[in-house]
Amino acid sequence: MRALGRREHSAEQLRRKLESRGYDESTAAEAVGELSERGWQSDSRFAEMLIRSRVGQGYGRMYIEGDLRVAGVPDAEASAALEAADCDWTQAALDLHARKFGAAPKTMDERNKQYRYLAGRGFTSDQIRKAMKGVAPDED
C-alpha cells in the first residue's frame, strides 16, 4: 500500500518489489492480485501514467513500448494505452528536434548526431527524417 501511495506501479513491478523485501513468490503474487481486485493497482492506469510522463519528456513510441515491456505491462494493455494516448509521434519528434537542435543539420556529422539522438529517444526513421527536414505532419 505504501508503494502505491507514492506512485503507480505495474503488477510486475509491485510483485518484484515485494519479493525483494523478503516475501515469497506466492505471497507477493497473492497480495498484488488482491490489490488489483480492489482497484488499487491497475496496469492500464500505470501504462497511461507512464505514457503521459514519457511523452512529456520527449520520448517516442518505441522507447515507451520498451519501458512498458520492462515494467511487465501485458502487450494488449500497452497497445491499448498507446492508442488511447492519441499522440502525433511525428509532431513530437519535430518538437523535440526544434527544442534540442533548433535547426536542420548542415553537415553530415550534424545529421548523424541528430539522427542518433532522435533514434535513441524511440522515434522511427520516417519520423526522424521529417523532423530533421522540419516537415510538420499536416504538410505530408
From TrEMBL:
Residues 42-82 form the RecX second three-helical domain. Keywords: Cytoplasm. Residues 1-24 have a biased composition (Basic and acidic residues). Residues 1-27 are annotated as: Disordered. GO terms for cellular component: cytoplasm. Residues 1-35 form the RecX first three-helical domain. GO terms for biological process: regulation of DNA repair. Residues 91-132 form the RecX third three-helical domain. Transmembrane segments: none annotated. It is found in: Cytoplasm. Modulates RecA activity. Belongs to the RecX family. This is Regulatory protein RecX. It comes from Stenotrophobium rhamnosiphilum. The gene is recX.
